Amino acid sequence: MIKKDSKTNLEIWSDKLTKIYGKGNEALEAVSKIDLRVKPGIHGFLGPNGAGKTTTINMLVGAISITEGSAEIRERKAGTVAAKQLIGFLPQDPVFYEDMTGEEYLRYMGQLGGLQKKEARLKAQQLLDFFNLFKARNREIGTYSGGEKQKVGIAGSLIHDPKVLILDEPTANLDPIGRADVVKKIKELSNRVSVFVSSHILSEIEQMCEDVTMIDNGKIVISDSISNIKKSFISDLYLLDTNMNEKLVDQLKDKKFISKARIDDLDGKIHIIPKDAEKLREILPQMLLKNKAKLYSFNQPELSLQDIFMEIMTKERGNKK
Amino acid sequence: MKKEYAENTSGKIKSSFEKLNLKVIQPAKNWLSKNIFKRTAIIIKKTFLDIYSLKKIIITLIAILIFPLIFVLLPTAVDFGLISPNHAATIIGFALIFPAFFWTLGLVYTIIIGTSGAPLIAEEVKSGTMLLLISKPISRIKIFIGKYMAVYFYGMILSFFSIFLIGWIGVLAKSGNIDHFISLIPFLTALYIYSLFILFLFTSITMAFSSIFKKARSASILIIFISIFSYIAFFLIRTLTGQFYVTFQLYHFDLGYHLGNVFILFVEALNAVPPSISWQTWFATITGVYNLTSTVDPDQNINLGGLEKTNYYLPVFSLLIWIVIAALLLLFGILSLKKREISV
Questions:
Q1: What is the mean pLDDT of chain A?
Q2: Is the pLDDT reported for residue B285 higher than 70?
């Protein structure tokens, strides 16, 4: 773990970063005192819709003001030209100059990033080639597919050779093929730049990232490496599958040794988090016998990020209630 | 392009991303660095190309030239073959001075500048392209200045051609003698200097509105309103209210009056067109710069004194006041964009 107040070797650092919209009774705290510690590599930024991901990112890139706290990109104050020189940014649902061709757009972005005219043209062509868009370079961006637009957007954010790439939901609104393509390119890029990527598509984050930060209601709920998070969650969850899941889940919920029991929407199994795992193992056979239920499976899986995310969010929201 | 790219790929620079020479481009550190201007120049170029279109320029020029054309086609009881070029230029100037102020560099010009500048920031913020722009290592001040300068350059070019063309139209309609056009140059120069002033004012207004408004249309409508109000509404107020205008000192807020005052300042400074009741009457009616009652014989078409000025303000004060207001609006526009929350 990184010391809380050490900024060295961090790509992104924030201290009590806060964004409040409005004033007085109308005030809405969109992001609340979050401390980001983003190391080199690919760092996932997770959270449900409205959790504050985009607001946080917009503060990091200087698009909106910081109400309280501070943020730095490689020890340069977020939002300054010096910090922006170090970042490449692709917003959520990016909008382009539709009448520009892919190459014109990249050259424009490159020159704004400080490249000479010739250098910008060469870099634009190299990036178009890297993103398999070279053939489409003279087409207007307005004619590009969703996936092509995302890729030209990432290329535009890379053209001035940033050190940290900030991508806000880069795969949202893409079809599965486009998504896989963009994820593959992001992984390839991680050899050259650090990537801070927000998403609510957790399977992709799991494929790409070493570290993740999860936020909900503007607050960080967990921030660590995926492996550490999984280790800390593995012992908690049990999956039970029988021929009468709905009946059993109701009975399990009433048991004092059960913290949480629910039927998962995706696999249809009962997801159980016990307070006392030994007690669960002891009582479960009796319950099955008593209900004359057929047991299909009972195991303790390695959790996916999706499971962990769901568990954390459920817990967080349960605590608030 | 393909050949060049092929050469690049086969030469020492490979197209693969791994071969890219990754380096951190340092931001320009001081105001003397040419990088400071380079990025602004890129914004100027892009914005200028967004505003400019040949079709738009041609339509604008036609609109700009219609009104002066009507004025120069009015009959003049002068044989241009017998008078000196300077005298001929004076007669042509008489015909052009009012339509140039009211129309060519007035209503049409200010509305064109206003509506060209209004979408530049508001529309980019609304559509989301501004988010891409501001994430690049360029300050918002430079983005604003770049867009501002693009509108200004566009206006400079537009007024240059407009003034050149109304000069030619005047000469062709009246005499067809090129010497008369040469003698008209001081007048056209006065018009051009005035156009730079009005361009400064209306570019500042439109860019300030563009910085604060969410919708470009709102900014455009307000600019059109200001333009019409300045050139027409106060003329009606002045005419209909009579003494009320003077008693309540409405001239302080009468932009049309101030613009007329500044216009006359440049015309007088360059000795461009001598005073004459024939054009001053038009001017007095629309701007209130002159009293409509003359102390000289109205039978003389050209006289040394012309109409007397109302002198609510010294012309140079009108100029300074509106230069300061334009500068403050420019500053306000910059600060508004700097503080604006940009998200889609």
A1: 89
A2: yes
Q: Does domain A12-225 have CATH number 1.20.1740.10?
A: no
For chain B, the residues whose C-beta falls within 8 A of a C-beta of chain A are: 1, 5, 8-9, 13, 15-20, 22-28, 35, 38-39, 42-43, 46, 127-129, 131-139, 339, 341-344
**Least trusted range by pLDDT, from B27-31, B63-67, B156-160, B329-333:** B27-31
- Residue labelled with tokens 């390695």: A302
**Residues in Cβ contact with B297 at an 8 Å cutoff, skipping those fewer than 6 apart:** B303
Give the distance from residue A156's alpha carbon to the nearest chain B alpha carbon, in angstroms: 9
8 A C-beta contact, residue A259 and residue A269? no
The Cα A56–Cα A166 span in angstroms is: 11
Residues of B within 8 A of A114 (CB-CB) are 25-28, 35, 38-39, 137
- Taking one residue from A and the other from B, the number of pairs with CB-CB distance under 8 angstroms is 126
A159: Cβ contacts below 8 Å, ≥ 6 apart: A88, A106, A109, A110, A113, A115, A120, A123, A124, A127
Q: State the SS3 of chain B.
A: CHHHHHHHHHCCCCCCHHHCCCCCCCCCCCCCCHHHHHHHHHHHHHHHHHHCCHHHHHHHHHHHHHHHHHHHCCCCCCCCCCCCHHHHHHHHHHHHHHHHHHHHHHHHHHHHHHHHHCHHHHHHHHHCHHHHHHCCCCCHHHHHHHHHHHHHHHHHHHHHHHHHHHHHHHHHHHCCCHHHHHHCHHHHHHHHHHHHHHHHHHHHHHHHHHHHCCCHHHHHHHHHHHHHHHHHHHHHHHHHHCHHHHHCCHHHHCHHHHHHHHHHHHHHHCCCCCCCHHHHHHHHHHHCCECCCCCCCCCCCCCCCCCCECCCCCHHHHHHHHHHHHHHHHHHHHHHHHHCCCCC
pLDDT confidence band for B11 (50 / 70 / 90)? very low
**Which of A131, A48, A121 shows the shortest CA–CA distance to A90?**
A131
- pLDDT tens sequence across B110-139: 999 999 999 999 999 999 999 999 999 999
Is A306 exposed, middle or buried, given 0-12, 13-18 or 19+ CB atoms closer than 10 A? middle
Would you tell me which residues 63-102 of chain A have a C-beta closer than 8 angstroms to some C-beta of chain B?
Answer: 63-65, 81-82, 84-89, 91-97
Q: Provide the whole-model pTM.
A: 0.84
ipTM for the predicted complex: 0.81
For residue A4, pLDDT over 60 is answered with no
Name which residue leads in pLDDT, B13 or B196.
Answer: B196
Beta strand A28-34 with A12-21 is: antiparallel
Q: B290, B278 in Cβ contact below 8 A? A: no
Total Cβ atoms within 10 A of residue A95? 18
What are the boundaries of each domain within chain B? 35-339
**CA separation, residue B80 to residues B27, B48, B171, B201 (Å):** 63, 42, 10, 38
Report how far residue B61's alpha carbon sits from residue B80's, in angstroms, rounded to the nearest whole number.
Answer: 27
Handedness of CA B273, B278, B282, B287 (dihedral sign): positive
In 3D space, the residue among B201, B52, B195, B212 whose CA is nearest the CA of residue B116 turns out to be B52
CA atoms of B223 and A300, how far apart (whole Å):
69
Distance CA B6, CA A306 (A): 45
Looking at the predicted structure, is the pLDDT value of residue A311 above 90? Answer: no
